[in-house]
């Protein structure tokens, strides 16, 4: 660490420089050990740094951060690297109806559906073409029959369908599905 000569006569700057120098040379001075640290035979460390908070919450946070990093680094999620996303609120919405003390198939399925909706991968015709092009090549939107059924177009058509037919249209669809 070196001092900038231009600020040599400023008392406040000298004080701050001294604090920074002490902080960088004597880092072990600020480690606060837990009360039960003297009872521990080994102190848990991560990358050479002593873990000062509860080990279980540290591991939970570490797994959450690594999972988020893997999610963002997937090629299909590259758009989230440039967007300012409030991940705390996002995960709160994804987990809002899931008990954190149990695992169930229905809650996993619900969360998977929410994630697919978030990343715009609901099964539209365009999504199906990616895996089964021979089967779905040339298919258009099943509601209007004029355009490709993309995520945005499908939502727009569904809104128009609701406005035109209301709940009666959905009852007809459910009735038709019951015969399949």
Write the layout of secondary structure elements.
Blueprint: H1 11-25, E1 45-46, E2 49-50, H2 55-73, H3 79-82, H4 87-94, H5 105-118, H6 125-131, H7 133-136, H8 151-178
Antiparallel strand pairs: 1-2
Structure description:
Keywords: Metal-binding. The protein has helices at 11-25, 55-73, 79-82, 87-94, 105-118, 125-131, 133-136, 151-178; strands at 45-46, 49-50. It has 180 residues and is mainly α. The chain has a two-stranded antiparallel sheet. A hairpin with a 2-residue loop joins strand 1 and strand 2 (49-50). The longest helix has 28 residues, at 151-178. The termini are far apart.
User: What integer value in Å does the Rg equal?
Assistant: 28 Å
- Report the portion of residues in β strands: under 5%
Largest sheet: 2 strands, antiparallel
Structural class: mainly alpha
What spatial form do the alpha-carbon principal axes imply? elongated
Low-confidence stretches: none
User: Helix-strand pattern, N to C?
Assistant: HEEHHHHHHH
Strand order of the largest sheet: 1-2
Kindly report how far apart the N and C termini lie. 75 Å
Keywords: Metal-binding
InterPro entries: Rubredoxin_Fe_BS
GO molecular function, one term: metal ion binding
